Amino acid sequence: MFSLRHNNNNKQGNANFGVLRRRIGSLALTLLLSVTAGAFILGMPTTALHAQGSSALASENLHWVTTWSASPSSLPPGMLPPEAVTDAFTDQTLRLVLHTSIGGNTVRVRLSNTHGNKRLQIGAATIALQAQGSGVVPETLTTLTFGGEESVTIARGGLVFSDPVAFTVPPLSNLSVSLYLPQPSGTVTTHLAAAQTSYVAAGDASMSEQLTAPTEIPVWNYLTAVDVGRQDDITAIVTLGDSITDGVGSNANLNNRWPNYLARRLLGTDNEPDFAVVNAGISGNRVLQENSPRFGENLQVRFERDVLALSGVSHIVLLEGINDIGMANMFPGEEVTPDEIIAGYRQIITRAHARGIKIIGATLTPYEGAAYYTEDGEQKRQAVNAWIRTSGEFDGVIDFEIPARDPSHISQMVPSYTVDKLHPNDEGYKAMADAIDLTLFD
């Protein structure tokens, strides 16, 4: 058995009442989704079910929760080589496919020009349920507006929310968000390791049921979050980390990252409260440093934007640090000590607690046999894990090392769980999620 410590100092006396409220809210949403699905089958008018945004929606007393996010793995233009500062898209439509955690009956999206080198024009934007590939369910195709307008210009480095819109978001479902970019876009704000196929097509295809001759892309561009408006008190768990949280090694388009497995466990367990599970992992990311346009800004820089700015966050699971250890062997002058990584953790813990958010530490998984493994790095990993387990500074601990490691060779991952000795596969990610004590989130 693996070990798990749960600090319980902040347990609320009305926890059972909170669970009951969430359950009642979930039941109401289930009934709403069932009625909506029936309406589609019976051929009822869909305008009432997927109406465009209105001021009435904005004035409702909605509780906003992020159901999905993608943290930018790109870097600011000033950190890019000159040849990388170029226009990524012109007169093209992106159709970005994403997988929700919780559902809702009102939605808004966040579009980011965080790493753009100039203003970004969005000529049109829509949201729909994905059918198959680049196709969408036609009766769900809904226009997104921004301050009542169908187009918006995002400032360099800026972000915009779309207006709230009546739209049935089923839990654990695929949505397609389409963005038409009429003008040269500048440098792209992107999440590279999506493990999900999205699409690019010529011209304005934002209202098209099926794209014509689209190009497949394995990334999410500009779209950084989808929020749902609810009438209950459900909150979000943000899973924060590197490629192991990002899902590198899992099969594309199957949503088998460990956070996806966790979401399915939570939503399928009757005696536990429902949560949104939001992924803020970036492949190659580090706690303290960055030097690649593929791996994003370091955790200290991106924490506010990628975690604290999301809606309805109550918990964070932090699994990051293996790249700080391993990449030190690849980049001269970037070696870090366990104490420096721990100091980075402490800053993240302090910032989370300042917002009233619980933060759970996760131990670093074995990596012997990976390209950047060294014996010295293994000693650092063990030192960091010992601190995570015993310091008492996190609000709880998930000991991911235990289910991931080979019992006969504990510095290596279970052979059937990995193909590169660093990243789990679908089976490995499921084992990690299954090892989580769900009472940590009570």
- CA radius of gyration: 22 Å
Structural class: alpha+beta
Q: Could you report the average pLDDT, rounded to the nearest whole number?
A: 89
- Please name the CATH architecture of the largest domain: 3-Layer(aba) Sandwich
Shape: globular
Query: Would you count the extended β strands for me?
Result: 22
How would you sum up the major sheet? 6 strands, antiparallel
Main sheet: which strands, in order across?
6-5-10-2-12-13
The CATH superfamily of the largest domain is known as: SGNH hydrolase
Q: Kindly estimate the percentage of residues that lie in beta strands according to DSSP.
A: 15-25%
Rounded to the nearest angstrom, the distance between the terminal CA atoms is: 22 Å
Query: Would you tell me which CATH topology of the largest domain applies?
Result: Rossmann fold
- The domain tally reads 2
Classify the helix fraction into a percent range: 10-25%
Number of discrete helical segments: 10
Low-confidence region ranges: 1-56
Q: Please, could you describe this protein's structure?
A:
The chain is an alpha+beta fold. It folds into two domains: 55-225, no CATH class; 235-441, Rossmann fold (3-Layer(aba) Sandwich), CATH 3.40.50.1110. The protein has ten helices and 22 strands. It has helices spanning 15-42, 55-59, 243-246, 258-267, 299-308, 322-326, 338-354, 375-390, 401-404, 426-434, and strands at 63-69, 92-99, 104-112, 120-122, 124-129, 142-143, 152-154, 159-161, 165-169, 174-181, 190-191, 198-202, 215-217, 220-221, 223-230, 236-241, 276-281, 313-319, 358-362, 396-398, 405-406, 409-413. A six-stranded antiparallel beta sheet has the order 6-5-10-2-12-13, with no helix packed on it. Strands 1, 3, 8, 9 and 15 form a five-stranded antiparallel beta sheet that branches. The longest helix is centred in the N-terminal third of the chain and has 28 residues, at 15-42. The protein is globular, with a radius of gyration of 22 Å.
